[in-house]
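We store amino acids, tokens; thus:
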Amino acid sequence: MASNGQSQQSHSSPTMFPKFRLLPAELRIEVWKASFMHRVVVLHSSPRCIMPSPNNHEHWISHCNNPPALSVCFESRALALARYPVILHVRYLGRCTHQSRVLYLDPSGDFLGLLVDGLNNANLEYLFQTVRMQDPAGLGLRHFGAAAGANSTIDTNVLTLLASNQVAVLNDLEDLVLLVYINEPEDRILSLFRDGECTLSEASSV
């Protein structure tokens, strides 16, 4: 007669599927593709550094994670690289250092948000060009948002920039969002976006 512990263990959800590799390749591929989710990818400027220069996006800070499939096996990585073809060389803000890292992006599905004060046309154009050059479809970003400033007062320069027809890189976007966030120090704002755990919420009071 089985004990209560053995009975509970037999009915618990499995955490591993060791025979996954024995599945037909077509089925494995569909499983990997089902794990590819649209993400909210956030870039910051360092609170201790100047605004990123237009020709060096390694000054961008991001704590967002890459898709797990990139790190599972050769098969999953090959499929993930096809889905997330854009590479951004960014940095992770540590306690004392800025660690260089690579961030993978799906230009057709991921939402890219910039939480940066002093946003300007040169920075936007370089970032959009970087993404477009790596996009196999040649379309670049489709979903983009920019912050209204690091405080509760909306930066009118950002509003003017995003509304300007002179910023040609914005013309082909499917979604353009103005990001407004709470009045917090930049270090606190960065901590809220660790591991990419962030979502978009509609401002119902606006």
